[in-house]
Give the backbone structure.
Amino acid sequence: MSKELLNKTGSILSVRLSLSLVKQFLSFAFGIILARLLTPQEFGIIALVNMVVSYVDGFTNFGLNNAIVQAPEIKKEQIDTVFSLDLFLSIFFCAVTYMMSGIIGEWFHSENVSSVMKWMSLYYLVTAFYYMPHTILRRNVEFKLISIIEVLQTLFTYSISVFLAYLGYSYWSIAYPAIIVPALFALYLSYATGWYPKLSLSKDMSSIYTFGVWGFFRSQIGLLVSKVDQFIIGKYLGVENLGIYSKSFNFTNQIMTGLAMPISGVCFSTFSRISEDRQAVNKLLMRAMTILSLLCFPVFLGIAALHSEIIIVLFGENWTNAIVPMQILSLACVAKSLTGLTESANIALGMYRLQTILNLLLLLFFAVSCFIYINHGTVFICFLFLLYSILSCLGNILLLIKNKICTFKDFIIAVWCPLLGACLMYFLVEYLSSVYFIAGDSLTELLILVSSGALFYLLWTIFFLKIKIINIRFAI
């Protein structure tokens, strides 16, 4: 059973990663166009609204969807009960958000935030019908269909946003498709899974609630970590500074999510099914960690090396204040790229309580630090996020070691070669940029630098894979 799942997971990962790269390319290309059409202030308004809506949305489900994925067996009545709870809470929070929109706008000193908040209150209702069929696909390990849907959803969302931004709809060009597109795909997901909304109340929910409550606290901690810095910057440093910070954060975080989350999501489902076979878990974890390292390390160290060129060439002069934040946050993503995978392993193997406590302690450290040092500006908040990301990654790995899932040596073996190659690539690109491409303000120069770094890392990866094959043959 474990061997079959490992083989299936490997084939799914290849498809998931391929389609995820397509999705990231679309996000990247359309994101550049939107940055040219909209201002940092307009991005700041959307960032404030998304900060509130995405956080409150976590209260509508209480982590029960992940409990459905993780449970060894599940009944239809349990699925309908989770949906019923989700729908009831979504209606409640939709009404509360709409009524509180004026107060939220006054808090952030922006009437525009208030008007967008009223529209985005519909998001809770849409996700109530979207999440459940999506969860069923995750439980059935149907990640190929999920990936196709995500690519199409990204294409439609950004196409509408660019079209509306071109017509002069300002921040509404992002707000309108954020509701319309998920609503349409919720209908398709319901048809694809054969699941249709039904209100129900099952009494056999104790295990689902137990896992879900811990999952809820953990997800709220994750949301707070991702939003507390934006909340503090938006409140004390203003909408423009928030727009600059959120653009840098979203640029790096979207790439990280696109590369790391597909692997973490697939592995979580597999970890849950093979949790009793620790040897199989270790094998999958180390394999996934090596793949993540090979993909993520060069990307984010490359962004760190070319941060100024990326901002000036792709986003324009209006975003020059985002140059330093972009570099620091891309370095944070090097550590953060492994956090999702290691956390998935800990949760799937039953260590969700310890993982939640660890996340809470790190959240307290990050939030308190942001409040204390907000007067030092946006760049210092970026450094705090870098420190938080490193501590989070190390904490998750120590949990795995404590529970004898892997050793520190296993971790080093999995990541040392990709990390060393990515670091060498970073210094090479930095050298070429400072010596031969001092201006760094043309697309041609940026492409040459990217190609040079990519070629070096490709040759390094080929050398690394040959060394691994030689070692395996020698061991045999």
